[in-house]
Every structure is written in structure tokens, then in C-alpha cells.
Input
Amino acid sequence: MTLRPSRRDFIAGGVGAGLSLPLLGDLAPHWLSAANAGWDQKLVILQLNGGNDWINNLVNPDESVYQAARPQLALPKAKMIQLNTTDPHYLHPRLAAFKTLYDQGRLALFPGYGYKVPNLSHFRSMDIMAEGDETARNVRAGWLGEVLSKVYTGAAQIEALNIENRLNRHFIGHPVPVLQPNSLSTFAFSTDSATRAVDGDVELALLESNAKVLRPTAIPNLRFLADAIGQAPSDSLILQTAGGSYTPKATYPSATTQDRYVRDRLQFVARYIVGGLQTPIYMTSLGGWDTHANEVDAADNTLGNHADLLGAVADNVKAFLDDLKAWSKDSNVTVLVQSEFGRRVGENGNLGCDHGFAGIAYLAGATIKNAGVRTTFPDWSKVSTPYNRAHFQYTTMLDKVTPNHFLSMYATLIEKLWGADSTKVLGAQWPLHDVFG
Amino acid sequence: MAIQAGGVTFSRHNKKVPLPKGGNQTPMASEDLTPWQPSASDPWDMKKVRHLGRRAGFGLRPEEAETLTTVGHKLAIDIFLLVPHHTIPERGTYLLPNGEVVNLSNYGHQVATWLWLMNNSPWQLQEKMAMFWHDHFSIGVGTVRYPELLARHVNWLRRLSLSPFKFLLLAVTIDPGMLYFLDNRISTSLKPNENYAREIQELYSMGVGGGYTETDIQEAARALTGITNILDYQFYNARSHDNGSKTVLGKTLNNGSGVNAIVRDMVGVVDAILAHPSTATYMVTKIWEYFVYENPSQALVDKLAARWRKDNYDIRALMETIFRSKAFYSTAAMRTLVKNPAEYVVGMMRNTYTTNISYIRTANRFLGMGLPLLNYPGPEGMPDGTAWINSQNVFNRINYATQFIQQRDWPRNSPRGPLLSTMNPEREIKRKNLDTATPDAIVDYYLELLTDSSVPKKVRDDLVAYMTKTNTGTRTWSYATQPARELNQKVSNLIHLIQGLPEAHIN
Output
């Protein structure tokens, strides 16, 4: 028994897109017209857990409210990096690598990224972004799980790779291998005959065949377990062998713990992309963004926890893309960086700030055709006092007209990147970003 | 508070189980909270005893299961519910009764100590509840910094694990570990920090969307200012408390100034939370999903929540209702949950009565299985159910079983280092006269012990075939002529194969 619907049956049954496409002609839905789209396109998601203080990512430092609301946190303009000479917005000093990507036309920025009725609980907000629905109470099916089970028509044996401690909620509803780079050596049944029984191979075969015996349907958890145990050996075989000869061809950052954490995970993704895995979705995450206190160093607010985190993300994403470019494997790889929400306009006095509305997302890669800032900034003039409780009043920007909503991002990825129907996953049509051309 | 890798949610489960159809005068067994009674067709048997042992503890040793069957259901459940306020040392070095020296300033050693206790404590429910509450009020060494405070935190959870819920909320509010973890120690009237004020309403009592507003969070943050600590010394700082009037969940707190005002405000916040109807329903749902089955019906939750409120949120009363209820022994409940890593690892120790274990080494393996005891990254705990299972954790668990079944006679000075554990099935083989039994009987005995005989027939037949062959798989096994050592090895391998079955991961 398998939980995933058999793709072979699906295509053999004539429902596959390839059979019916040519007949549609002018009636073809717009999502089929995307150039270069398809399941060979790879999406790498780097989720920032805890709420990235996006205002200190990209901001107009001359904004008086910014200065007034953040006496400790407002970054000095002299140290920041202007996006370009005609733009009043400046990047955090540690986002220099993003500036390079921007100059190379490989980075799109989405300030004011969020959803209409913000929830300031980490968990609820993460759920909303995982479910792809801001009204649902629980994650019953993560949007990436739905992409895989509803619209994916590719042939990858491993349909997604979740590089975390446990299954990310974005994948719920679909069995996806979850592992960490340092755990690859243990991603297999132990066959060390020295420490155990004599007949290792006999036992391993029995472990696998036992799991594949059909279980009764009455207990869904039992079937899930049987499926997971039965699939594990073949997943292991693929992940142990693919990309075995990969070595990084770019210099990744390694100064801080965060640098090394992201580096290890992105190199792990690079290994499998270079190794030719057909897997279209890779997801990993970085924690530590919940900067209620000590977001910056007291002596120099361009340094500190948040700066280290930003540096780890930007430097690694750039190194990752350069690495794949050196391997000539970057033409179909897109990186998405997002967080569950942003933080308050004003600081809270502990060298930090509390949960707030709005956020920022980044898309990076050679797939980007229209680089630059792709969404509208929330309006500073509507920010009320006291600043430490203030949010941007911009929910009118999150309807289906202005594409600041995260669902516009998801829809764009599904339609423009993969050429699939986003309404099957998201339930409605969201405005698309003109970022992939 | 820091959140690290991994999607998280307050929702503990992700699969929808069809709800039982209601409408009858007599509730369905899965909804029936009246005490279960034995009958000729439905006696108090080993399946129910093991079910109780797995849910109210970490599984039973073979003789324990036999004894608890003999004494009858009333006394058996009593034995679980009678819990002394037993705590363990919080600092310094400590000699575990198995001979290992643990250093309690090392959180990994604390986990080792806890694993020892889970395996050996006669008060299984206390350890199970402490684990539940630790997951509920989850804190971690990454933010707390002083591992000794974690030991104290868990000791408090042990002591209060079956107390009125109010005591738990108050204790956690002034717990130095929690004051570090959710920043309330730095919350002052000038700079109120909402981190703890949010989670005490959102995660610890009413649930996300449970009816509090952003204003309630801000007001509660003001009310909870001035509760602070220096290392393990907790105190109230009247100068940093906000003496103004606050309204939390519709309840006005206006208590003047001084240390007493802080305590009254704190109790006021907790009382306001307990007066809100969401608290009982959220907590009852969470406890039900952890101990009984996933997705209980709203009617059942409402009924149990009403009863719990009437019992003044007494946790022991709630657990007693659950463990004695017909619903707890219904087919919807028995063998339907997924074991968490502790239930799998300690369950294996207890089911095989293995005590010769290096808990320090086991803790290292255990912490890689997805349950970060004493090292939770965020306050939301871990999602249960199928979220424990992915291919990596399949390997982690079954490879742990591979190490676990090692035999006593493996050389201690092997280049692989000291053993994780040495399981010795000989005791059970002798006790059950398995050395003179047929392969069928051996397989059936262990399938019953470890999986309640719930496996498909083909799996059972394949295991019997395995047991009739020699270890190399080439010759037919002759039980009469094999030395005891060979039989021990073979039975150990059988236990390993059974622990690799999907049924062995079902709780």
C-alpha cells in the first residue's frame, strides 16, 4: 500500500497534461503559457523561523518615523548599502551579498509581504503560511504537500527533500524524506554485522518485506507507519548515492554558527542538484529570528544576532547560486527566503522588538528575469504611536489586487515556475508577480 | 524565546479520523466516560493492561503486566494514580543505580537520568505526566543557559503533575527556567515584554485563537512585570512592577503597589485564564489526544471539560476519569496512537525487562530521534502522531533497536567502544520455558508481548520461518541441539525484527 497516488497510473490513464494540451489551443489556461516552466524547475525554500525584523533588512533610513521609532535599532545610513542610486531604500550592511545578486539581476525583493488578518502567534502564522490559507484553523494539508499530490506530474522518485529535524508543516499530507546533512551516514538500516546478529542481510530483507505486507485500514496511523518503513530503504539508496562526487565550487561563509548551519544545508541541496536528482522542492529553515531582546549589539547596532543571521542568509544564498553556476546547474534553480511575520515598527527597549505585521521575501536565482523590488512598501505615514506597539496599516494591500500577499508568491511559483494550475492548490486565483518573465 | 528548524503548530495531529456518529441515547463506547466494567465477554485482560501501561507509563515489564492483570482493573488503575511527590537531585554529580556517574550541569546527562527514571520508576504515571507537561510548557537549554534550572523545572512538573492546573500555571510563571526562556525576567513597567504573557494564554491554557485579544496580551504583560530572578533565586521586584489598572480577559486587576500587588496580579491573571471557557476545552482536548485518541468529538470534549471545571481543574481527577472510562478501552483508543521516541525507546527496555543499559549513551541516540527533552527550541512543544515518523526517524529508531539487542558476551573493549546496552533474553526464555518451545510458540509469545499479537498473519509466518532457520539461513534450526547462547542470540534478533514492525511503533 502506498499513500501517494501512483503517478504512473495517473499518466497512463490519459489525464496527464501532455495528452490534452495541444487540443486546447487558444483556450489553454494562462498558467500553461509560462515560458521555460516545468517540473525540471527547482525551488529551494529557506524559511526564517521566529519573525525576521524585515524593517532592518530594507528601509529608507531618512524616514523620520523609522528614526523616531527605533532610537537603538535604526541603522546608520552611512554604513548601509543603497539598493541603487535612484532608490531611497538601503540594505542592511550584512546584506552586501544580496546587493551583488541584485546588481547581477538575480534577486527580487518583496517588501510588505504578508497576509490580510495577521496573527502574531509564531505557530499560527507558520501554520497559515504552511497551509496556504489564512482562514483554516489547523494544517490539514500543507501547500507543498498539495502541490505534490495534486498538480505534480514530474517523475522524481524523491519528490521533495526536507532538510530539517522533522517534517515541515508545509509538506503535511505527503510523505517526504526528512533528514539533516550530518545524519546521512545514519540514513540507512545498520548492517554492521560485528555488533549484532550474524545474518544481517536476511534480517534487513525481512524488515523491508514485513513493512510492505498490507495492513488493515482501520488504523490510519498504522498504514502511515507501514508506508514510511517500507519506503525508507529505497529513499536511502537514492540519497546515499546521488551527488556523491560533489564538492563546492564556490566559497561559502563559515565565520559564525549560523553561517555554518545554512552552509551545510545549502551545500546538501547543491549536492543533489549537481548529482542530478529530479527532486523539484527542497526546504530548510533557520531559527533564531525571534529577536525580542539583543537583536543588535549595544556598541554597534550594525552588528549582533540579527546581523549575523542576515549575513548567514545572504552570503550563503549567493555562494550557493555561484556554486551551482560553476557547476552549470543554476539555470533552473530558484531560492525563496521568507519568514512567518515581521516585527513592530518601534523597538521595545531591550535592544529588540516584538512581533509585528508585514515582512519581506526574497527570490534569488538565474531564473529571475525582472530583478528588483517587486512590491509596494507599506506607508510609514499611517504608523501610529506608541511605536513599540505600532504596526503598518496596510491590509488593503493584501487583497487580490496588490500582490503583496504570500499567496501571490505561491501562485507565481506554481504557475510561472512549474507551469501548473495554482487554483487547484490555493483554491482561488491570486495576482501573479512578473518576476520570471 | 527562540524557534529553530522545523515547522510547528499548536495542532498536535494532522490526520482527520472520521468522527463517530452520535445521536443515540447511550453514547458510543468511544465517547463513554462512565467507568469501564469487566464482563464475561470483555474481561480485564493483558491487552487492556498493556494499553494502560503504555498510555499511563512507558510500557510494562512482562511480570508487571501479569500482576496487574491478576489484581483486577480497579487496583491496577489505582496503582498508576497513586503518585508520591518524588523528585530527583538537581545539581552536582549523581550516581545512577546502574553505576553511571551523571553530571547534572550537563543536560545530556539529565536526559540520561530521566531515561533511567522512565525505565525504572515504579511511579510511571508521574514520569509520563512530567513528560507531557514538559512538552506543554516546553523550555530548552539553548535559552535557559543553566542546565540545573532545567532539572528544577522538571522536578516542579513532577511534583505538580497531578495537582490542580492552577498550581502548575503559577509555578511555571515563577519558574526561573521559564523566566529565562520567555524573557519575563526582563519585563518591567517601562518595557513590558509580551513573550510570556502571550504564551501563557495562547499555548499554555486557551489555545491559539482561544478568545484572548492582543489587548489581553499587552495587559497581562503589564500585570506580570516585576517577576524576576537571579540565577535560581526567584524574587519579586516591586520597583519594576506596573501598578496601574489592567484588564485581562474582562477581569480588572487594580491592586495597588508593593510585592503583594505582583502576587495578586499574577494570581489574577491565572484566575482570569481559568475562568475562560477555552482553557478547559483546549487542555482537555490536548490531554485526550495525548493519552486516548486523536480528534475527539466536540461533544465529548465539552462534557469532559465541564466535569474538569467542576473538579476545580484537578488533573488527578481528570486522569482518573480518563483511565477508568469505557472510552479509554474502546477500539478507537487501543493501539491507535503513534509512539513518541521515549515510548519507543523506554518501551523496548521495559517490555524486555532490560536494565543493563548505558543511559548516557542511550541519551545521545535518543536525542536524535526528534524529541528534544530539556532542549526544546520553542514554547510550543512537539507535534505528535505521524509527525514523529519520517524515513530518518525510521532509521534512527530501528538502528537503535539493532544496538539495543546486543549480547552480553560482546567484548567490552571492542574498538566500537562500550555497549549501548546488553539485552539478555535468557531470563524471559527461562521464565516462560521458551527453550523447550517450538519456533511458533516463541514468535507468538514475543508478538504478544511487543505488539499485542496485532500483526498480519503473513508477517507472523515469515517470522516463524526465520526462527526455524539457523542464523546463516541455510540450515533448519534444531532447537534441541543449540546451545543456550545461540538461542539467546536468535531470540534477540527476533525482538529486533519485531521492533522494526510498524505495529511496534503503535502505542
